[in-house]
Amino acid sequence: MAKSSTSLVIFGANGDLSRRKLIPALLQLHCNDRLPDGFNIIGVSRTPFSDDEYRESMWESAVELVGVEASRKQFEEFSRRLFYEAGDLSSSEGLAGVDSRLADLEQSAEVANRMFYFSIAPGLYESAVASLDDAGIAHGNDGWSRLVIEKPFGTDRASATKLDSSIHAVFPEKDMFRIDHYLGKETVQNRMVLRFANSIFEPIWNRNYVKSVQITVAEEVDAASRAAYYDSSGLVRDMLQNHLLQILTIIAMEPPSAVDPESLRDRRVDVLRAIAEYSVEDIVGNAVAGTYEGYRSHDGVDSSSKTPTYAALKLQIDNWRWQGVSFYLRTGKALENKNIEGVVEFQRPPHFVFGGATGAREPESNILAICLQPDEGAHLRFQVKVPGRGMEMKSADMQFHYDSAFRDQVIPEAYERLLQDALDGDASLFIRSDQIAESWRIVDPLNAYWESDESDRPAEYSVGSTGPIQAVDLLTADGNVWLQGCGTHD
Ligand code: BG6
To answer: How far apart are alpha carbons 95 and 114 in whole angstroms?
Structure first.
């Protein structure tokens, strides 16, 4: 077999994502012996570092991270695959160093694979691809060439389509790996297992039994450390268009006929296609924007900013399975705690047979809560009889938790899985161009309205709260309440 090399070139290699996620994930893959033979990493950013300075600085970042178990010895072995070049993606000349480093590393390879990772400002993607092309480095000798690209991809549907067509001139769709790291989370994938490897849920996974589906991505962290990026991007582009809609597609998708990348991606995009576009009237009645107190005082945030740091909304999926079921989504920063979960709320029993019995009250809904973080697992809630008190009932949970069920196993970081899949050429957990377009179609009206003079300023909420009261009203209007199923741990 021809001798091959694989080079991963990370642009933005001195940034937070590289330090905290990418290099640690690659280190972990190295320790688990999951990187291909002939694999090297070239970190690129504008700051000058020697190879050794860069390695040392990555080691210092890695040891600070919880969950990075590598020893110094393992890191030193890994370091032999880690190189650094100062470079500038704004022109082909700025990539001369990268070009010669690639040539060095690929010297004895007959087949040279290249994977480029953009962890740079999204506004630079288009010109960066043009620079790679002009510098003649987008493709190696006889091997494959892939581009891995962080979200947000575009700022709306029109810009995403334009970006696609310019990138496709250099990297065809099959070589583009658009990342949404939520899809790499083990617990998100566990939802697919829960649905498609168990037969008990499928018969009830539809409008006949499901009353509502609620998706919560609550974060305790605020936006202060990335205020300038955050204020120009906003919560809708940062979280809603991608992470929340990904979770939604996995809960709502039809079973794929097989788990090949295209079948999976087809089923996910089908869900988004069935969501109608909001009109301004729909937004007023079905969506709430909020901003936490003090947000506008962060450095980098305009004092008149209308950027939401919280959003709650109601969606309908117009297909056979979900007609009439309300899907509620909420996400925000600076909330009381970190909690990511999806709750499927089932219909109440059609007839309450215990009416009139001592202590009996209308039962609460059964729920299945799929807990993504930090309480990784699932809770199935049902009614039980309280002993010795007539027919009084209360809710009890049947629980599954990763930390107790898989005691000796660490849950891998999302980026480990995604980097490995991209190296293997498996695009199942990456976002295809049509899915990007559909998700922008859904959220573009929200941005257009919330950024316009027509809309009021977002509702204020206190730091450390559960968000604006208007988000509660959104559900009350339907006779519903926000449900939290995760977070209690036996
Ligand atoms: C990122 C967003 O994509 O996801 C951040 O840009 C957010 O604003 C982060 O904090 C949340 O990721 P996780 O994995 O911590 O839930």
So the answer is: 15
Token readout for 14 is 């001195």
Decide if 27 is inside a domain: yes
| 22: containing domain | 4-150
Number of domains, the chain = 2
243 is catalytic: yes
CATH number at residue 37: 3.40.50.720
Residue 121 Cα, ligand 1 centroid: separation in angstroms? 16
Burial class (CB in 10 A: 0-12, 13-18, 19+), 37: exposed
Q: Is residue 326 in a domain? A: yes
Q: Which amino acid is at 287?
A: A
Ligand 1, atom 13, lies closest to the CA of 182
Nearest CA to ligand 1 atom 8: 238
Residue 419 sits in a domain of what CATH number?
A: 3.30.360.10
Same domain, 143 and 201: no
490 lies in a domain? no
Q: Is 228 found in the same domain as 131? A: no
Atom 5, ligand 1: which residue's CA is nearest? 238
- At which of 150, 169, 197 does a domain end? 150
Q: Does 192 lie in the same domain as 146?
A: no
Residue 485 lies in a domain: no
Which is nearest to 330 in space by CA: 254, 425, 431, 239?
239
**Closest ligand 1 atom number to CA of residue 238:** 6
What are the C-alpha distances in Å from 138 to residues 263, 275, 333? 29, 37, 38
Which of 139, 168, 181, 243 is catalytic? The answer is 243
Using the atom order of ligand 1, give the atom closest to the CA of residue 242: 3
Residues 95 and 230 in one domain: no
The 10 Å CB-count burial string (b at 16+, else e) for 160-188 is beebbeebeebbeeebbbbbbbbbbbbbb
In a structure prediction context, what are the per-residue pLDDT tens digits for the chain, which is 490 residues long? 679 999 999 999 999 999 999 999 999 999 999 999 999 999 999 999 999 999 999 999 988 887 677 788 999 999 999 999 999 999 999 999 999 999 999 999 999 999 999 999 999 999 999 999 999 999 999 999 999 999 999 999 999 999 999 999 999 999 999 999 999 998 888 888 999 999 999 999 999 999 999 999 999 999 999 998 899 989 999 999 999 999 999 999 999 998 899 999 999 999 999 999 999 999 999 999 999 999 999 999 999 999 999 999 999 999 999 999 999 999 999 999 999 999 999 999 999 888 888 888 888 999 999 999 998 999 999 999 999 999 999 999 999 999 999 998 888 899 999 999 999 999 999 999 999 999 999 999 999 999 999 999 999 999 999 999 999 999 999 999 999 999 866 6
